[in-house]
Each structure stands twice: as structure tokens, then as C-alpha cells.
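User: For a reading group we're discussing how well predicted structures match intuition. Take Periplasmic nitrate reductase, electron transfer subunit. Before you show the prediction, I'll give you the sequence so everyone sees exactly what went in.
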Amino acid sequence: MFKQKFISLLAAFVVVLSGTFVAAQQSGVASLRDQAIDEVNYIDEVQKQDTSGRFSRNYRQQPPLIPHSVAQYQIDLNANQCLQCHDWTNAGDRGAPTLSMTHYMDREGNQLDAVAGTRWFCNQCHVPQANAPALVDNKFEPSSN
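Assistant: Thanks. Here is the predicted 3D structure of Periplasmic nitrate reductase, electron transfer subunit, as C-alpha cells, for the group to look at:
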């Protein structure tokens, strides 16, 4: 009984989907690329990371940008290679900036000896710096405070 209903629903879905596809082809649906499907799609230049020096922050509390390559860094549930240099236990020896103390606090504000799980995945907030053009025109001015 269930199998028959499932098959009939699936068949009805396929008919509706195929009808929609045929109608879309006949109505001349425009491509999101503004090009015909058989034309070559040229993409913008890929922006390379700028490692010439540190970029300044644009507003208070902006997470610092990463001034070095992290292409081969392992950051997953088992490991976080950022901590080899930036953890408070290693930063002094490595000459790297130490993580903010907020990275060692749990959700209730209790101090921890290790990086909090909510701050473990660094690349959620910190991104490699690149001198890339703005994606959209805007009038953003960096903060002076």
C-alpha cells in the first residue's frame, strides 16, 4: 500500500518537474551569467593574499586579519594549527600575537585554561588579508576611534 502511494507520488512529481523544465526552455529563461550556456564564462581574477605587512583594522572589535598563509593549516575537531603559535603558552616563544582572553572564556564568562570550543575554529572570524576591490560599491569609511 505505502509503496504504491510512494510510486504514484514520485511519478506525479516527475511529470510536474519535466513540464516545468520544458516550459522554462520554451519561455526563453535568461541565464544568471548573462551569457548563453555554450559561451566561455570568464571569471574575475582570483585575489591573492597580501603578506607584505599587517593591515590596520577598520572598526573597533574587528577580528584581526591573517597576515600569513594558512592554506595547509589543519583546523578541525581534532587539531588547530593556529594554536601552535598563537596559544598563550607558545606565543611569547614564537613572537606571535597572543589570543585575546575572550578566546579562553566559556559562554557563562568563566575563565578556561584552553581555548573555548566556541572559539576553536579561527577562520570563522579571522580571514587572510588581501588587497581586493570591494565586491559592491559602498561608502564605508574606517572608524577613527
